[in-house]
Hints:
The protein is mainly alpha-helical. Helices cover 66% and strands 0% of the residues.
Amino acid sequence: LNAMDGLSLLTRVSQSVPTIAASLLSLPRLGNPYLSQSAYSILADLLSIPADDPVNNLQGQLRDILQAVVTDPPSNSDLTLAPAWASVVGHAILAFHEVDPDACAVKVGEVWKLLWSFLESSQRAIRQSVSDSLDSLIKCFTPKMIQIAIDDKTGATSTIRKIISQLDKALGSLAFAAATPEILTVLSSLVIGLRYRNDSRSSPTATELL
């Protein structure tokens, strides 16, 4: 009986998660930064639930959740809301990658561009949160994306090559001078994320090739 009760409770919780997520997404529209911050924080926790956890019933909503969050970014000077928003973007993209890597890969360039602009913020807490989310995006690189970057010698079509070029330019840019620690952190994540080899273990990694 106890096992049956536990299973029933688990089922009810699982069924409630999508409704809770939808309700949380509606709160930022009210314009209260503190309420929005709390909503994003709770949503990030929900998105952190592993995909194979019985409670997690968000798989079908992940694309829409990500789109809803990136469609309504805060100001890059909003110290109350921007860190929480960046965090939920990072959690959403990782959760999406876990259930559909190829569909997620299509969004990486768009989301990177949006987050990148926040590194120009004068607020360190915002830059650090954005740096963490950019690290999450790097974890969403698929072998196909990396191979396209290796093959794209001109850098015209590869999302990853564009990201590398952007990081390189930022290190010499006054606009990103304050963000140098965060940029170096992202570069470190990139080195790790591009350890992919397309042949034998003796072949160079994507990090070396790129």
